[in-house]
Amino acid sequence: MSYTAWIILTAALVGLSCGIIGVFLILRKTAMMADAISHTVLLGIVLAFIVTREVGGTPMLIGGILAGIVTAFLVQWLHSLDVQHDASIGIVFTTLFAIGVILIATSIGNAHLDVQHALMGEITFIPFHTITVPWIGEIPQATALLILVLLVVLFFIVTFYKEWKITSFDPALAASLGIPVLFMHYLFMGLVSVTTVASFDAVGAIMVVAMLITPAASSYLWTDKLVVMLVLSGAFGVLSAVIGYYVAAWIDTSISGSMAFATGIIFLISFLFSPKHGIIAKRLKPETGQTGTDPV
Amino acid sequence: MKEIVLEVKDLSASYRKTTVLHDVNFSVQRGSLTGIIGPNGAGKSTLIKTILELHPALTGTVKFFNEPYNKVKKRIGYVPQRGSVDWDFPTDALDVVTMGLYGQIGWLRRPTRKHKQKAYEALEKMGMGDYADRQISQLSGGQQQRVFLARALVQDADMYFMDEPLAGVDAATERAIMTILKELKAKGKTVLVVHHDLQTVEDYFDHVLLLNRTIINHGKTEDVFTMENIAETYGGNMRWMGEKREHAFHIVE
Amino acid sequence: MLSILSSSNTLWVLLSTMTLGVAAGTIGCIAYWKRQNLMSDALSHAALPGVVIAFLLWGEKNLLVLVIGAGITALIGALFIQWVTTSSRITEDSAMGMVLAVFYGFGIMLLAIANRLPGGNQSGLDNFIYGQAAAMVRSDVITMLILALVVLFIVFISFKEWKIFLFDKEFAQGLGISIQRMNTLYSVVLVMAIVIGIQAVGVILMAALLIIPAVSARYWTQSFHWMILLSALIGGLSGVLGTLVSTMKNGLPTGPFIVVVGAGFFVLSFLFGKEKGLFVNYVQYKFQQKQQLKLMEQEGGNV
Fold first, then answer.
1. Which of A187, A265, B5, C75 shows a CA-CA span of 20 to 30 A to A52?
2. Most B CBs within 10 Å: which of C92, C292, C296, C298, as the mutation test of the B interface?
């Protein structure tokens, strides 16, 4: 495969995983957790580096995932102790991120890790670090990782589909039916973290946030069916990756920045023109919301 | 005397510094339909939430069928206030009702056609059969409440707690819900309902629990729902009562 | 320590981070009661494209110009969030997340272009975006001080209007206060507080300066008046202490230290705050439980 194809494939994988996860993120009203986790993952990676002196690989993955789950846990804990939910997100992630930056500045120097790289990613280098996978041959390491993550994400979303649905829609009912709501929450945040960490090195934190929130929000404007929303959101993620790549190639600029921007364009189009919930459609046929004529 | 299925002892609860429930003791018989009545801020919702461990209790114990809550969770159905969920969630009426079956379906299994059929029957019972595939945000308030009731029905619990199911619904929905509640009672289920409309208490409930921070009175409607008791319950809140209270008096008289 | 203080530039930087902390702490209280804590995070990210565009148009790094550019895109971001949430089913947190990531992505695109252009002081731009208080020069500090004072002045002269606006919108409307105008004013002061802080702490951590002092202050008082004062104090102290620590060694970033000091204040308040600190809450709960039990025993005895 060509250089370009690998980059687009890798970004498309990020778009697909994030698009699917993002649907539940939005429906659970925890969109800003994406922002929080994508930043605190940095601390996990830094700590993993300090312990193992290794950039990348398994330690980095584990460090990042743990950091994500710790973030989710701290936010939940503060919130359960009466701190406003968004305030606890704001406090936890900025503090952990600040600690990460300080650690980079004091104990690591500039060795292989810097904040800007982390935020923007270096997708252009992806095709150069390859590994050999049995039966498939040589493929870029980041791509292989993202394929694995996509499989993990699909597995969990499909297996616990109805549990995700009920814990997102009505946690109180879920709890009374004996579904462990809090455990499901942490499992979900774990999935967000896994996806974030895997995407992090390739495309950077900001694109992960864009891919997690925007395609899902766009698809929310097109459909009232959860399954359709999941499919659409994944598709929007992939589409953003492709559009973003070519825009970046065209005006010669940051690929991941451009992909994040492309998600925004898709949202804007959905927001204006979606036949269901777009604002133009709403203008044309005002208030069709409550059409309930009562039965009996 | 009938079997006692719910026993609340010395229950109290608070929100920060204010005690909302104080020394609440009562027991409920199997097959009764109880209205929980009291002024705004009397702790009606808190009572239900504390009983179901959705709000921490300061003191006291609650036993269902002589067991703690955790052991009998699945035998208990809870219908929260309509405003407690996001009605913009991408799902339809039938799907929401099917959620009531998730406990029975269990992990790793999908709802089958049989489950869907059961959910559909519950919807039909609530007069909502034609709305099964309607997106839930497109339902009126009354219809949403019926969906919630249908969901409680399929749960097939032995005891139900309902938080203001009749608040802000149209007359037809109110009739439909009451028919179902009486049917549940006839089947030997126990139902507790937070209710706010004093005029209908006598028609709807066989038992009444008058609550204002603590239990003012509890028992058979004809014994307990008297002018004196109502006045005592709403005593400190005369002004809040306004004209409703006068109606209530007429009925009692 | 003395040697640090004797350096005149450090004094200027200290003054600016202190003022910034005070201004951010004050505005943070307003954001807290509007329940829009994370709005500052979204808007500080949304400021990035404005910074780069201003730089591209002006051709050099001038703080006032960058701040104006930052302010413009941040305001557009704020308007966009409002537009999306009021006219569609998208919730506010999703709208904020989108504005944050998409605007920032757009900024990164522009930044890559700016970095390609010949000439210009790109590293200065990076310092500005990621926060490097030590890189500030005297004229920067003066610009910042003036802007911060303007923000404080706006809050100060309309203090009682803010209070009514935050606690009882309908009542405020009854008094003839225009909610629309207050909302606009709120967005303007919020954006101002954010953009003047970017230089010192960076776009990513700016939100912390608005959130942490306000939430910490909440643990000590029930009065809005005191909360603002305390929040300003905590903000100012975090600014000063964080800056001092970061000047201990060359090349240390200022922003993260300010945030960590602020977080320290939060933890203290969270544990020991007299209003609803963890410790006080626990004692209160136990006390109430005991009272309740005693009361019941007495009543039980009477029956």
1. A187
2. C292
- Whether C116 has its CB under 8 Å from any CB of chain A: the answer is yes
**Contact at 8 Å (CB) between B206 and B194?**
no
- Chain centroid, CA C293 distance in Å: 45
* C278 in contact with B, Cβ within 8 Å: no
Q: How far is CA A247 from CA A216, A250, C139, in A?
A: 22, 5, 39
Sites in chain C below the pLDDT cut of 50: 1-2, 303
Q: Residue A94 is nearest to which of C88, C93, C205, comparing CB atoms?
A: C205
CA A96 to chain centroid, in Å, comes to 19
A215: closest CA of chain B, how far (Å): 15
Number of other CB atoms surrounding residue A9 within 10 Å:
19
Residue of C nearest to A224 (CA): C89
Contact B102 A290 (CB under 8 A): no
Contact yes or no for A214/A232 (Cβ under 8 A): no
B117 Cβ contact list (under 8 Å, min separation 6)? none
Alpha helix segments (H runs only) across chain A: 3-27, 31-52, 57-80, 85-103, 115-120, 141-159, 161-169, 171-176, 181-203, 205-220, 226-251, 255-273, 279-284
Strand order in the sheet with B207-212: B76-79, B159-163, B190-194, B33-37, B207-212, B214-220
Query: pLDDT at position C95, please?
Result: 97
Percentage of chain A exceeding pLDDT 70:
91
Give kind and range of the element (H or E) at residue A288.
Answer: none
Q: What is the C-alpha separation between C142 and C150, in angstroms, rounded?
A: 12
Summarize the confidence of residues A136-146 as an average pLDDT.
86
Dump pLDDT digits (tens) for B146-182.
999 999 999 889 999 999 999 888 999 999 999 999 9
Quick check: C273 and A82 in contact, CB under 8 A?
no
Alpha-carbon distances, residue C280 vs B93, B235, C219, C275, C289 (angstroms): 46, 34, 10, 7, 14
Average pLDDT over residues A79-107: 91
Q: How confident is the model at residue A110 (pLDDT cuts 50, 70, 90)?
A: low
Supply the pLDDT for residue A286: 61
Residue B102 has pLDDT above 60, yes or no: yes
Q: Which amino acid type is present at position A133?
A: V
* C280 touching A (Cβ < 8 Å): no
Amino acid identity, position C301: G
Show residues of chain B in contact with A166, CB under 8 Å: 99, 102
Q: How far apart are CA C53 and CA C59, in angstroms?
A: 10
Contact C98 A214 (CB under 8 A): yes
C234 contact A CB<8A:
no
What is the three-class DSSP state of B158? coil
Contact of A236 with A19, CB cutoff 8 Å: yes
Strands B159-163 and B190-194: parallel
CA distance C251 to A104: 11
Q: For residue A96, give the chain C residue with the closest CA.
A: C260
**A217-258 pLDDT, tens digit each:** 999 999 999 999 999 999 999 999 999 999 999 999 989 899
Put simply, the answer to whether A264 touches C102 (Cβ < 8 Å) is: yes
Neighbours of A209 (CB within 10 A): 31
Contact B100 A173 (CB under 8 A): yes
Candidates C12, C39, C47, C85; CA nearest to C214 is C39
Sign, CA torsion B65/B71/B72/B77: positive
Q: Are C97 and C39 in contact (CB under 8 A)?
A: no
Helix ranges (H only) for chain C are 2-6, 8-33, 39-58, 63-87, 92-116, 122-130, 138-157, 159-167, 169-174, 179-201, 206-218, 224-246, 254-272, 278-302
The H-assigned helical ranges of chain B are: 44-51, 69-72, 93-99, 102-105, 113-125, 141-155, 171-186, 201-204, 221-224, 227-234, 238-241, 243-252
